[in-house]
From TrEMBL:
Species of origin: Pedobacter cryoconitis
Record keywords: Isomerase
Lineage: Bacteria, Pseudomonadati, Bacteroidota, Sphingobacteriia, Sphingobacteriales
Name of protein: Mannose-6-phosphate isomerase-like protein (Cupin superfamily)
GO molecular function: isomerase activity
SUPFAM superfamilies linked to this entry: RmlC-like cupins (SSF51182)
Amino acid sequence: MDQKNKQDELNISEIEKGKSHIIVEIIEYVPNAVVIKTIIKKSTGNISIMSFDSGEGLTEKITPFDTFAQIIEGEAEIVIDQVSNHLKSGQGIVIPAHLSSFIKPNGRFKMIQTIIKSGYD
């Protein structure tokens, strides 16, 4: 893929609908960065794919919605309410709403994050 096509692909807010994709190839690693690309974004929730370079993670946060995180390449440590969970490629975990969580770096990895906002009282 030439540089212009790569840049055009990075500028798309959602991936092309009605076309199959190799999810792990939708996003690339960027040195010293966390990259996030939206797959679907709706008022009722969103699905994003993320790549984390070695040494990069996400800071502690609390969200009002359950979040599903699935590792699709590499390994990561997801800490939920001070409990460490080591996930490898193919494994996923539901991060419950209203609990603190963060992602500790464990080398390079990619993951899919799904947040569903509807159905909450």
